[in-house]
Known about the structure:
mainly beta
Amino acid sequence: QVQLVESGGGLVQAGDSLRLSCAGSGRSLRPYAMGWFRQVPGKAREFVAGMNGIGGSTFYVDSVKGRFAISRDNAKNTLYLQMNSLRPEDTAVYYCAARGRVLTALIPSDMDYWGKGTLVTVSS
């Protein structure tokens, strides 16, 4: 089993930056494909960024390309999401997720393990 715990959320102003962290335990995250998703109340959870395991490729939703960057530190068993130039529409609960196979459809149902989320609020 893999346990995931997100941190780093908070209240910021438009244009600011935040770095989210997702600490893994139970197993090494190294071979897992990892992803960040976000959800606004009343809307479906959506894919934000993803990274395949062991030197794998990265993926981003168009709305965050050039502003967000996903990375991982295998020594710390931690996944990150660096978010720059934040916008009010980025406001959501951000979830970390892991998948035991290569990322394919980039949808929530493809992921095997989930954290409980961290809230990001961007004021205008």
